[in-house]
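Tokens as discussed.
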């Protein structure tokens, strides 16, 4: 039985500085009848990502412009509850662009990036984490962009986040050794005890550059960076010959850095070490998603990959979930459970 109305979080104001709860407004709208070719999804889980602040400011050109009053963009996983599309049947579980709402409508076009959940080795929430774009980012960033090899020393910033919590385990499963950087002693213990890292650095309480030198005395082969700014700079000073620097994210730069970007002091090390620094956009790697999904699912089934989720309960928690991300409070993939 469908609800008569749809709760939706809409954009109430564009952020100036940190994202605030007042930037959003919760509204209710009636469910509209489906048109031919459409299907309706009941949202089960929604995820948040740092890029969402860019959505709010319309600085991310790969996403549709977001006007004041529009439903917030975001990926989710849900169950098809009504369908007038021949390829999507009622009861199927899908993940894609659902937006911050109880019910989403899609038409199967490429814009929605809709994928059916086929791997059932873990709960459906993992379609937004380790068995979805987050996991694909971890795997393809390290394997395809970072060209990780057995015996490599891998450094990962933001190592306790959604992507980073997978990278150390992937590195270990491929015969490499990973050191993670995180923002508390508790997170660092999690990295070494559960998430495949041989060592961890607490950037809030330790000298990051000095500790990298102590833990990676022969240098870094792959630097998987989720943070940017000073942490990235510290890692560049320890690159080995022909190292690969993978630019996955730069959360330290997404607020103040937009107007006042941090100027790297050690960028010349890329030239001196004949290294490579490359950014990537996961949506451009869709042809490789099945390969990544298969590898990740096989490791989960074998007990060689333990995913980490940080779940808040209820659609009303969406603004708080995004704010937690920028505060560095999440451990693993930050999710909101919307419905059973």
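Sequence:
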């Amino acid at each position: 039985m469908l609800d008569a109305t749809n709760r939706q979080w809409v954009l109430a104001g564009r952020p100036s500085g940190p994202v605030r709860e007042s930037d959003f407004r919760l509204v209710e709208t009636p469910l509209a009848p489906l048109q031919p070719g459409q299907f309706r999804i009941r949202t089960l889980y929604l995820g948040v990502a740092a890029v969402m602040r860019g959505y709010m400011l319309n600085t991310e050109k790969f996403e549709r412009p977001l006007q004041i009053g529009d439903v917030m963009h975001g990926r989710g996983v849900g169950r098809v509850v009504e369908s007038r599309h021949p390829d999507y049947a009622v009861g199927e579980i899908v993940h894609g662009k659902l937006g911050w709402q109880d019910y989403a409508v899609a038409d199967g076009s490429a814009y929605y990036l809709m994928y059916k959940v086929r791997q059932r080795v873990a709960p459906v929430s993992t379609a937004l984490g380790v068995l979805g774009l987050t996991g694909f980012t971890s795997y393809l960033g390290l394997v395809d962009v970072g060209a990780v090899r057995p015996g490599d020393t891998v450094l990962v910033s933001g190592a306790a986040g959604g992507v980073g919590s997978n990278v150390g385990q992937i590195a270990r499963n491929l015969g490499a050794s990973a050191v993670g950087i995180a923002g508390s002693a508790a997170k660092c213990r999690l990295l070494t005890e559960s998430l495949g890292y041989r060592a961890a650095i607490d950037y809030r309480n330790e000298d990051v550059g000095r500790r990298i030198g102590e833990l990676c005395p022969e240098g870094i082969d792959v630097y998987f960076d989720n943070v940017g700014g000073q942490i990235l700079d510290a890692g560049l000073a320890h690159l080995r010959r022909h190292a690969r620097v993978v630019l996955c994210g730069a959360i330290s730069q997404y607020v103040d850095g937009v107007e006042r970007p941090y100027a790297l002091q050690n960028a010349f090390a890329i030239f001196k070490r004949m290294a490579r620094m490359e950014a990537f956009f996961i949506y451009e790697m869709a042809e490789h998603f099945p390969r990544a999904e298969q590898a990740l699912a096989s490791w989960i089934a074998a007990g060689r990959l333990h995913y980490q989720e940080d779940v808040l309960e209820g659609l009303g928690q969406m603004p708080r979930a995004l704010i937690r991300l920028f505060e560095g409070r999440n451990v693993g993939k930050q999710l909101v459970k919307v419905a059973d």
